[in-house]
Amino acid sequence: MSFIEDLTDGFIKTQKTQTIDELTSLIAGLFDNKSFEDYQNNEKTGPTVLQYPDGLDNTVEYPHRLTFNIVKYTPVKSSTTTQASSNAVLNDVNNAFKTDILTSTEAVITMYHPNSLQTSYENTWNVEALGFIGDAAKQSPNGREFISQAANGIKEQAAQKGLASVSGLLGGKGGEGVQAGLGLVANPRLSIMFQGVTPRTFKLDFSFNPKSEQEVLHTLAIIKLFKYHSAPDFYDASSRAFFRYPDIFEIKSYNGVNENLAMFKYGRCACTNIELDYSPQQVWQTFENGFPVSVNMSLSFNELDIVTKSSIIQGR
Fold first, then answer.
1. Which pLDDT band holds residue 98 (cuts at 50, 70, 90)?
2. How far apart are CA 105 and CA 46, in angstroms?
3. How far apart are CA 86 and CA 236, in angstroms?
4. Is residue 295 within 8 Å of residue 243, measured between CB atoms?
5. Which of 7, 44, 192, 246 has the smallest CB count inside 10 Å?
6. CA–CA distance, 122 with 102 (Å, rounded to integer)
């Protein structure tokens, strides 16, 4: 069994995977309106399975690879009406909390591992002016001491207000002059305060340099599928009042035939940006069918949930 078949069997155990002939037919059909409409309506034998380059099964030549398991974000259908009314939308929202809405695998795309991979673990801390009362509350181990310090704090704040009043009466830079003359300035009692965690982001860069007609078809299909599954759709095309969510990406890193546990694990992601350069050599060159001889694709992802201590222990 090939690496791609192993992946497909691992991701989708109950659905039929397309043969190469069926896959090639589907890829060609992606650019025919009727066939692509069938794809949108999920009228296919199973999830689309694509890879680039064609020789990716050779784990000696390509020991490192990434898989993108694209999961359909399926809205829950309202049982009371088929119209996109406010009640129908509210019913869908209520039902969504009771149902696993990440329901079906739409595609599995396997790519070589890019040469560059960077991410960050960003925690937000802000500097806040607590004042005397806030600083006393922070420092005091018990309530009695806090009350005592708070009383002193009232005196301190009164003195600061008095100095500020004198400064204000003088106007212009007179206030600063008074403070400089006294050699005093109010202590804002700064403290660094934890605010939260920023969801992790990363960018993956790929280069397509197809060497056969099949690789051209695969490149076309992969680019189109990334664009298609990262885009939203209208909940109701006639009113255009609401969007359906784009699909979700589950990414795994492989070393040989096994998941690369030495690298961090990816959380479920949204694809937030796709950049395509159809002439990376700054020269416009195409095959006879009009497809560029080289395409660079940059994918930006944002994880859906934050990284915490427990998720780091689990490999994030």
1. very low
2. 9
3. 12
4. no
5. 192
6. 27
Number of H helices, E strands in the chain: 9, 12
Backbone phi, psi, residue 312, to 5°: -65, -40
Q: For the residues of 224-251, what is the DSSP string, one character each? A: HHHHHHTS-EESSTTT---EEPPPEEEE
Q: Is the four-CA dihedral 5, 6, 9, 11 of positive or negative sign?
A: negative
SS3 173: coil
Residue type for position 55: G
Residue-wise pLDDT tens digits, 246-270? 999 999 999 988 999 999 999 999 9
Q: Alpha-carbon distance 31 to 9, whole Å? A: 28
- Position 50, amino acid: L
Report the pLDDT value the prediction gives residue 246, as an integer from 0 to 100: 92
Rounded distance between C-alpha atoms, residue 255 and residue 63, angstroms: 6
Length of the chain: 316
Q: Mention every residue, 6+ apart, whose C-beta is less than 8 A from residue 193.
A: 125, 126, 127, 128
- Cα angle at 100 between 94 and 103, to 5 degrees? 125
Write the Ramachandran bin of 290: left for phi over 0, alpha for psi from -120 to 50, otherwise beta.
left
Distance CA 212, CA 218 (A): 10
Q: CA–CA separation, 227 vs 244, rounded Å?
A: 15
* Residue given tokens 């009350």 in the structure block: 147
pLDDT digit string, tens, across residues 148-195: 555 555 555 555 555 555 555 445 555 666 667 777 777 777 888 899
